[in-house]
Amino acid sequence: MRAAQFERITEGPPAVDPGRAGDIARAAFGVRPVEVTRLPGETDANFRIATDDGPAYVLKVSGDRDRGRVTIQNALLAHIRRQDPGLPVPRPVRTAGGLDLVEQDLDGRPVLARLLSWLPGEPLAAIRDRSDELYADIGATAGRLAAAMAGAPPGDRPEPHYWDLRDAEAALDQCVPFVTDSGLGAGLGRARELLAERPVRWAGLPTAFVHHDLNALNILVGGPPRRTCGIVDFGDALHTARVADLAVLLAALTRIEPRPLRVAGVLAAAYHRAAPLTEDEVDALYPLLVARVATVAATTARLAEQGGHGDPRHRVPDTARQLARLVDLPPDFATATLRAACGFDPYPAGARARAWIAANPRAFHPVVAGRVTPVDLSAASELFDEVDPRRPDDLWVAVQAGVVAGSGPAVTRYAEPWFPRSARRATGAGEAATVSLGVALFGGGRVHAPLAGVVEATEGGVVLRHEVEPGVRFWTRFSGVRSDLPVGSPVEPGQPVGHLAGPDLRSGPGLVSGDDRYSATRHSRGAPPGAPSAQLTVVRPAHCAVPTHVRPSELEVWQALVPDSSALLGVSSGIRAWRPALPEAMAGRQAHLPRTHPTYFADPIDMVRARDCFFYDEQGHAYLDALNNVTLVGHGHPRLVRAAARQLARLNTNSRFVYGVLTEYAARLTATLPEGLDVVYFLNSGSEANDLALRMARYVTGREDIAVIEHAYHGYTSLVSDVSPARYKRYGKPGFTHPTPAPDRYRGEFGYDDPDSGARYATRAAEVFAAMGETGRPPAAFIYESLLAGGGQVVLPPGYLAEAQRAARAHGALTIADEVQVGFGRLGDAFWGFQTHGADIRPDFVTMGKAMGNGFPVAAMVTTREISERFDATGRFFSTYGGNPVACAVGLELLDVLEEEGLQANARRVGQYLRDRLWRLAEHHPLIGDVRGQGFYSGVELVADRETKLPAPAETLLVCERLKDEGVLVYPTGPDWNVLKLKPPLTFTEEHADALVDALDLVLRRNW
């Protein structure tokens, strides 16, 4: 029957032209077509029918011999709508006489016509950039469909067809002779071997009606955000093993994925939540996936060779590459991954062996005789300088999934350029394999058997088989070990089994010293790939290609196959398998920190290192920092690190003692400010600086009330929170605080198109000042940011600040320039933000912090001698840690770095380059409503509708989460929480800007 079925798919659908299709729709179903468009189809002639009264339909014309098949399809669609009305499947349209299937004459032969409701949406095949959320939604929808179809009454069942997975091997037998490509031939050969070794036991699998053709043409997607909005074409529906439907879905949707198993896990997990699978079904899933892909690839080759026409979906070259990726996977690992995704034990066959290994650590004889001392890989930076070369047995270094042991500290790092992770996936680079699996060995000497066993292999290393109890079997694998023992010979515990000559500890590949190279590297939790290693495996190595290094995301599954191998070093070694630190860290935060203490991102990152514009997490992933305006000159700048360490070693005390670095720093700092601002109060945070400025303003003016800009944020102390609309909106505005309208030209009263917007907004501020005086509460101070941070990265319009400050002074208010977020050259055009609004602007107070110490806690408030002396009447003001020698040394060095590395000019140039690229991106993504900023302080406002400017906070948070997954850190801000705040270090380059914009483009293309 296979040959006849193949002829059926090459025969094609009935020959119906669009004009005849329109006539059938009009005569049989009473619709009035205005446009008829041909749609693809393998056995049916399909047409989209647009009508003059609005609704659209799909007309399907089938041969008369398909009467049973199409009758069953209509019955299934009706059943699905009864079982789950929310499922987006077509609805059969009935004729005036109540029929859903009518016979028509086509050039003297009968054909069958059906009319189905049209489902709007875009075929998934048209979308190359697909998010995991979309995949999960598709998997869940497929699961719902399976659950709805499972209850269909048996009745008449469709006949098996060519694509029936139960006959996949027969299809391969008929197609393989037509394969001429050697690479595809090899892949098909491995697929057939796999299916022979792991046959699907059909009799034990639950059966049901299934769609059996959930491919990227039959799944429709809408949005934003992109989600499943339709499942069409039930032409291949069968009554078969239920899991075959999921296998077809995985085969279709992983076709373009360099890592098909990762996406298959996302789909299977979501499907399983909607339609729980049995363990037998999950175990059959990988062989069925390979069978489907092999059948499609072989059929593609046969159609090409025989010149067949068929459906275009079966002539996709991607299937050959997809097959090669699938058959290259270790089958045990592939099945374990799918089992883990569905919540099952990844490898139940090894459960007893894993339990024995965990319960009997003292039963193992150490495989090496040298010393092993645990070292924290993330903190270590030196090499093995103290190793005694005269004692080779002490040269052992062991790396157990991220923990290094040896005679001294060590670190392994890999030079690897960063770029968005989706781009890595698109190019096939994928996630780096940075985690040692097992115990990596460095040095030279003999390797010993850990337990009694039998030599099972010696090619490329040594494999020992151990059977510690009846039925409890596992293996020890030593890669890179040379052995003269014959295969099959027994070994005793402690018996030498081979000799290892490891890499030189001081110059081996992957080992580097010093921190200066770290900015260009990405650290690893293990030894360099290819280093000799020792592993315990509960899966036979001859049947599973166990790697020495794996991707962090795959580690948990691999550990079910390769359990904690630290037992091979002996219980006294101190080496244990790596475990993620994040869960424990989060539990500690929940136990000891306030419930409201925030963390970035729904899935937080456990950071262990940072350098220049990058963070590095515990798994070695790099994150481009476009968020953290504290580290002004880049994370871990070597000059600042040395300055802090040098001063800390010399002197650190409080500023009541006299030391030259304080006065030198104060002089350098005031030299950057307008004349007259020459008295410095050193503090520890920007909040303290703003608090002191407000306190002094109140004392000097004898007034209590403060004018602020709406949506502003100035800090966390009681007084400063009370003048921060971004804070007090949660508990109520104090009576002494008076907000002025935010000069927001995107959302405010006066827009970008108004050349006088600055003066108009300043007039609104002056009206507030006047109203304060009229009510007997004149302002003591007007505090402002030179660019509104909490307000949504709002750039003050030209002329606003000069006019608003002039109006404040006219009403007797002192002015406070809050430069905590935007000072020290960040805005590019001037050193201080207020200076970008005109050289004649001179506030009474300038507050600074955050970037002042590049992460070291240091802040200051600068005012005039006159104001300072008037405040002296309140008594002496002193901060214990403010202006300590280390803080001043770091601050001084930062000023030198800013000047010598030209970072202010870099902020101006690259900041504008970044915004220009973002505006070009906005041309393609309507979610971007506005791009604004100065220097390295930018905002991207996201809106659900550009016309109404409806804020899109949920979408903004999702964008930030997905950017984090791509390796880029940004976060929402603004009163509506819908603005991406971009505040990178001033060392940010055009290449970094390109990476950020490219990653944002990927996220927006995938999700919207």
From TrEMBL:
Residues 36-274 form the Aminoglycoside phosphotransferase domain. It comes from the Bacteria. One of its GO terms (molecular function) is transaminase activity. This is Aminotransferase class III-fold pyridoxal phosphate-dependent enzyme. PANTHER family: ALANINE--GLYOXYLATE AMINOTRANSFERASE 2-LIKE, PTHR45688. It comes from Pseudonocardia eucalypti. Keywords: Aminotransferase, Pyridoxal phosphate, Transferase. Belongs to the class-III pyridoxal-phosphate-dependent aminotransferase family. Residues 486-534 are annotated as: Disordered. InterPro entries: Aminoglycoside_PTrfase, Aminotrans_3, Kinase-like_dom_sf, PyrdxlP-dep_Trfase, PyrdxlP-dep_Trfase_major, PyrdxlP-dep_Trfase_small.
